[in-house]
Automatic annotation (TrEMBL):
A Pfam family reported for this protein in Swiss-Prot or TrEMBL: FA_desaturase
Signal peptide bounds: none
Organism superkingdom: Bacteria
Molecular function terms, GO-annotated: oxidoreductase activity, acting on paired donors, with oxidation of a pair of donors resulting in the reduction of molecular oxygen to two molecules of water
Protein name stated in the entry: Linoleoyl-CoA desaturase
CDD domains from the UniProt entry: Delta6-FADS-like
Residues annotated as domain Fatty acid desaturase: 69-335
InterPro entries in alphabetical order: FA_desaturase_dom, Fatty_acid_desaturase
GO biological process, one term: lipid biosynthetic process
Amino acid sequence: MRASGAESDSLPQPEWVEALGEELDRLRAEVIATRGERDARYIRGIITNQRAFEIAGRIALAFSLFPPAWVCGTLMLSTAKILENMELGHNVLHGQWDWMGDPAIHSSTWEWDFLTPADAWKRTHNHQHHTWTNVVGRDRDLGYTILRMSPEQPWHPAHLAQPLVNALLAPVFEWGIALYDLEPDVVLSGGRSPRRLVNDAARLAAKALRQLAKDYLLFPALAGPSAVPCLLGNLCANTVRNIWSHTIIMCGHFPGAVQTFTEEQVQEETRGQWYLRQIQGSANIEGGPLFHILTGNLSHQIEHHLFPDLPSNRYATLAPRVRAICQRYGLPYVTGPLFRQYASTWGRILRYALPNR
């Protein structure tokens, strides 16, 4: 398997790749064998803290005629929405906590505070993106059908606008993901029926109405004289969450050193080769414990792509072990602070806005 989209030195011989896969399989089995009460306390603690931030934020916004209350309420609600989206919604819907057998923290029952319905997101993200990570023509998350992020993607003059498109997408990211999950491009190509699109659009509209009513009608109405600043606080909190999630997701998938692949290169792919592609097609973001929690531990994007259904709190301890394995096999382990990964991602967006040289 030969990577494209980024410069790559010689890759391991096939027998090395399978040895790599066996090592990573052993790491996965080790975590599965040791999941237990410590992990359960972690996720329940995150849920408790997230709800506390949301309740406190909404109470403060109910008195947000006073500027200090508005600032505190907006900050707390923003934090609650980030935790709910990143460390709870994303990871619960991956099935990371299904092993607990708790119906309240299960991928089949969780519905998140995000526009796109959970089932639609699981289809496009869990099953398509994580199976075909960075494979041009199979992974629709590679640019989300609107950005060109690989030289193998055909260039169109419309791509000249992609820096602007990406900047505009960030504050409304949940709307972009919701429309993307409808897969209108797949319908146009004949891969899905128009009737399915209509049904999915109706489900999206129903959820969007509930979300909009909650944040922009119900809670502002309950705030009485503080209705307008409460509404603005909710709008700011949703915007902050959107910009944050967009930033973390883009920095975990699209820095310049992250590689892309063609469909021909992944034909008859073995387990070891799949692992290798996840390593080469992802990037980590360095930071402290609180930063990792606020990213949903997606700052450990390499470990997440290797083990998407393992508890997210384990990624921090897996990361140095995965990095050591990569060093022994001479594999790139793309990591760096947020500002560097963000700059590198924008470099890639700008580079592929232009036709190939």
